[in-house]
Amino acid sequence: MEQPEDMASLSEFDSLAGSIPATKVEITVSCRNLLDKDMFSKSDPLCVMYTQGMENKQWREFGRTEVIDNTLNPDFVRKFIVDYFFEEKQNLRFDLYDVDSKSPDLSKHDFLGQAFCTLGEIVGSPGSRLEKSLTGKLLH
């Protein structure tokens, strides 16, 4: 049986079996009414995004925003670019800190709160905009 030229054969897809198609998603973080941990000024917030491994469930730091000085309502400029796999549950965690020094060590800064979601929740939200309340305890 002859196959029309414009149709793909099964053997053409076999070489792609190991690759899962992904879409790039740009995540922008904004916060409102953060805790004020500084005595004489407003907090200097930083957001750290983590992704969770599929097999070992370990959280890995994906990236950090810039620090914005003296605000409780930051609109971070630095974006996170993430591969979105439609069929996979991709857990994300966002930790917020009040930066008190130039140290990259997060334990040297005041923890403000964290939020958990999946990438699918963000993509599936109206306008791809998701709002979450921060929890106050640092959970790893």
TrEMBL record:
GO CC terms, sorted: plasma membrane
GO molecular function: calcium-dependent phospholipid binding
GO BP field: cell differentiation; cellular response to calcium ion
A Pfam family that the UniProt record links to this protein: C2
Keywords, in A-Z order: Differentiation, Phosphoprotein
InterPro entries found in the cross-reference section: C2_dom, C2_domain_sf, Copine
Ranges of residues in domain C2: 2-132
PANTHER family with a match to the protein in the record: COPINE, COPINE-5
Reported function: Probable calcium-dependent phospholipid-binding protein that may play a role in calcium-mediated intracellular processes. Plays a role in dendrite formation by melanocytes.
Full protein name: Copine-5 isoform X5
Encoding gene (name): CPNE5
